[in-house]
Amino acid sequence: MSVDRQQVEATIRDLLAGYNKDGVELTPETDIAADLNIDSADVLNFVMEVEDAFDVDISLNELSDVRTIAQLVDLVAERVGA
Amino acid sequence: MVDLLEKYRAAKERHDLLASIGVDAVGLVNDRILSPTRAIIGGREIILAGTNNYMGVTFEPECIRAGQKAMEEFGTGTTGSRIANGTYSLHGQMERALAEFMGRRHCMVFSTGFQANLGMIAGLCGPDDTIFIDADSHASIFDGCRLSGAKVVLFRHNDPDHLAKRLARHDPGKGGRLVILEGIYSMLGDTAPLRDFVALKREHDFQLLVDEAHSFGVLGEKGRGLAEREGVEEDVDFIVGTFSKSLGGIGGYAVSDHPDFEVLRYTARPYMFTAAPAPASIAAALCALKIIREQPERRAWLRTLSERLHAGLKAEGFTLGVDEISPVVAVICPDEKAAVAMWNGLLQAGVYVNLALPPGTPNKLSLMRCSVSAAHTEEEVDAVIAAFVAVRRQLVEQGLWPRE
Ligand SMILES: Cc1ncc(COP(=O)(O)O)c(C=O)c1O
After folding, report:
1. With contacts defined as CB-CB under 8 Å, which chain B residues touch A55?
2. Which of B266, B294, B322 is the last residue of a domain?
3. CATH number for B215
4. Would you say residue B335 lies in a domain?
5. Which of A55, B212, B321, B344 could make an SS bond with B183 (beta carbons 3.0 to 4.6 A apart)?
6. B169 touches chain A (CB under 8 A)
7. With pLDDT > 90 as the criterion, what percentage of chain B qualifies?
8. Rounded to the nearest whole angstrom, what is the distance from the C-alpha of residue B117 to the centroid of ligand 1?
9. SS3 content of chain A, % helix, strand, coil (to 5)
10. Assigned CATH topology for domain A5-80
11. Residues lining ligand 1, Cβ inside 6 A
12. Using one digit for the tens of pLDDT, what is the confidence trace for B1-17?
């Protein structure tokens, strides 16, 4: 799949919109769970959507190092070779 | 200094708010237990309809006597782990009886079902391995995965196609792969589509572990669980279970036909470094196992009552978690506030069920989780249904539950 980092970020922001109930403004530094007030179960649902969108696996272990949107974009971008 | 408990402020505020509505659901105390289905709570007799006591064996005179006798003969506790001084002849007897009941060569008894999952998962898997788990897995499965250091990949609840996709794109490298499922999922009472999952073994290499915590005793002709009912026991490499539900005790177990299974006795740390279950607990569970084996009519009666509760609540217009008949019957509440009010109302009306709230539930559902026991009577089941109807009427009047 040839996607660039910007596309990765755009898709992730789109998917995140469904979980952003309070309409928090998203920046690369947004802490996905804490700033958007998403509970642990929904974090996993969101990540499964990301995995399906890019056809990649993100293991729980890798996820434990990810807090911000930028970190998630980095991880996915690396995985899809963007 | 950062106060370590500060991180729980939001959780504490939510808990305090919910508790302020009535009785604190997570702090509920049974002052006395009268029978598998009755307790004294807050000075009143309550029908217990949320105990996981599926076979209703907790007050079997024979099991109580077996426990008493074991305590007299072997003492109050084991004061040591299974690999040191804590293994008594009783533990071996229980392991042989369970292996025989489950039709397996090997059995290990753990101190709880939670520890059986920790010990099995972390015992089987290490950093080179990958574990595929259902997104709705029990906490002990998530924690076992973390403890193992293996790579952990989630698939959508009860979705074999999603798992197939994950297996297909995953490169195992030099490690092994373990898939973990549950027989009956504890919150909604749905079963895993086990035959479809097992079919994936033809195309993909992996070993399979099924946690039959809620299905042991309940499903299958002999009560071995979902794998028995679905006729796929040979394809399930490891089964984990607990004494804390159908066996009415405390303890956990794992069974397998794997020739090297016994190595886990000196490699699985949650088995090795905790005290062995108490003699009375083992002896009572051993007796309960005998009752499950000898009285299949309990299973049939449980099924009859499960159907009665399921159909009764549905006929009254309640939305249930799943259509499948199961001794776990989950009533979906409109929201968290309604759930807390319903739970308090039911307790006032003399019925105890489990209050289950997100994130401990699938799909953010707020649930009244009922579980049926073979010790219930039809009248008790009807009383539970009537209580649901009466309390809902109050909540509708208070604007807490939508009018139909
Ligand atoms: C699916 C599942 N596995 C394991 C356990 C743990 O069993 P135990 O109560 O013996 O620790 C439970 C419930 O407690 C459970 O629901």
Report:
1. 169
2. B294
3. 3.40.640.10
4. yes
5. B212
6. yes
7. 93
8. 9
9. 60, 0, 40
10. 1.10.1200
11. B 112-114, 117, 138, 140, 182, 186, 211, 213-214, 242, 244, 252
12. 999 999 999 889 999 99
Taking contacts as CB-CB distances below 8 angstroms, the residues of chain A near B135 are 44-45, 48
Both tokens of residue B138? Answer: 């029990």
Tens digits of per-residue pLDDT, B293-329? 999 999 999 999 999 999 999 999 999 999 999 999 9
Task: In whole angstroms, give the CA distance from residue B147 to residue B44.
Answer: 43
Instruction: Please report the atom of ligand 1 found closest to the CA of residue B117.
Output: 4
Do B23 and B83 belong together in one domain? no
Helix and strand numbers (H, E) in chain A are 5, 0
pTM of the predicted protein model: 0.95
Contacts of B361 in chain A (CB under 8 A): 41
| Domain match, B85 and B175 both | yes
CB contact under 8 A, A61 and B151: yes
B168 vs A: CB within 8 A: no
3-state class (DSSP) for residue A41: helix
Q: What is the mean pLDDT of residues B126-136?
A: 97
Looking at chain A from residue 35 to 74, which residues have their Cβ under 8 Å from any Cβ of chain B?
39-42, 44-45, 47-48, 55-57, 59-61
Residue B396 corresponds to which tokens in the numbers above?
């509708």
Distance separating alpha carbons of residues B48 and B54, to the nearest angstrom: 12
ipTM of the complex in this document? 0.87
Closest atom of ligand 1 relative to the B250 alpha carbon: 10
Contacts of A60 in chain B (CB under 8 A): 142, 145-146, 152-154
Sheet of strand B151-155, all strands in order from the earlier edge strand to the far edge: B106-110, B252-256, B238-242, B207-211, B177-182, B130-134, B151-155
Q: How do the domains of chain A map onto residue ranges?
A: 5-80
B257 exposure class (CB count in 10 Å sphere: 0-12, 13-18, 19+): middle
| Pairwise CB contact (< 8 Å): B135 & A44 | yes
Count structural domains, chain B: 2
Tell me, yes or no, whether B23 and B95 share the same domain: no
